[in-house]
Amino acid sequence: MAQVRIVDVGYVPAPAPAAGAAPPEPTIKLNAMEAQWVVAPVLQHLLLFEGDRLPPFDDVVRSLKSSLAATLATHAPLAGKLHHLADTGEVAIRRSADDEGVRFVVAETDADARSLACDEDHDVRTFEGLVPEVDMYRLPAPLLGVQATRLGGAGGVALGLTLHHAVADGQSMWRLVEAWAAACRGHAPPEPPPCFDRARVRLPDGEELARSVVRKYMPGLPAVPMPALLQQDRLRFTRRTFTLDAPRIARLKQRIVRLGDAHGAPLRRPPSSFVAVVSLAWSCAVRCRSVPADDDVFLCFFADARDRLDPPAGAEYFGTCLTCCLVKLPARELRGERALAAAASAVQDAIREMAEDPLGSSPGWEFIKLAIDGSPPIDRLVNVSGSAGFRAYEVADFGWGRPRRTENVRMNHDGQVALVRARDGGGVQAAVSMLQRAHVDAFQSELLHLLGSDSDE
């Protein structure tokens, strides 16, 4: 673990609206899809930069601050806070004249980008020091914090973001990064601009459903309960990142199809990259643990619901718009020869059911219930966050080239897998978090075995 030293803490306020422009709404009430995430609020990512294109660190900080201010012109609600509206029982984003803006931390460390970005076990404690610490478990809570850290060794910069999950999902977060990076390069922001209008997401019973979520899952507001699933000591986790390039993913898809055909259970359609990688990760996680063959094992992942709603919310909708998919199979299904095809078929079925009814009777509540109740046991649950489609490396060019590495810092529990599109643009990067190092070693061995290759990964 490398020591991280805080050098300065300041704030970047949102600029005043341009002349003639309508001021942003002072209060934005969270819908039920978003309110549930108040109990799992912390979304953290780390971007590591190095190379000859990096300006001096002080210039980097100035550029990041000025471009963040420009970005907040279109993302002004993020400079506010999340409040509990005790009179109505709702939770809402509010901006006031007393809000200082977005917390901006400047730090330094002896850790270097190359060692932090390696694919071996992550330096989790240092990672945590490279993202801003923001208290989101008591309302009013900040929505966004950023940290720029001067790296040692051969040099480099770490840029860390902490974002409240109740107001942004991965899709929104990477669109924010894209807008900020464009501003830092001196380019126009991506079109269309973000939309914070919660009327874009129409849920049955609307405001009353949001209030019922607050009453049921967080009755002690303004103090936010921490679910059982998030109470593990994540600093004890062993974390490792694997990158599957495009040719290997293509071979994985072909193998899944062949396995389905060979065992008389062909897939409905060829697997997507997401389905293929998630099926591989789920199979590896089950095979590296001692779960009785007849016990059910579970996979939880989230799907972007924006374009699946009626009417669609639109890609520009800035918020958390996710629906939960919970899949289960007997453990023996993921240990046999057909494991990858069995997993892929089950994942495809879950996605199809979600697409047919994206809201269902309780969109996403399954995960919140799992998080709070601790059931099923964590050793039988794999949770996938992120997406193989997130263009993290592509959108995060602040003028210094693509990051050498981006990582999801807030991996909360044993058996979590975090996905983004790989740096080469055609593959998938998957970070795996487990409590026991032996399980991570076994996961890696199973991964190579199921890929049908003994080459290094």
Automatic annotation (TrEMBL):
Key words of the record: Acyltransferase, Transferase
Source species: Panicum hallii var. hallii
Protein's name in the database: Uncharacterized protein
GO MF term set: acyltransferase activity, transferring groups other than amino-acyl groups
Pfam family, one: Transferase
Record flagged with keyword Transferase: yes
PANTHER family, per the entry: PTHR31625
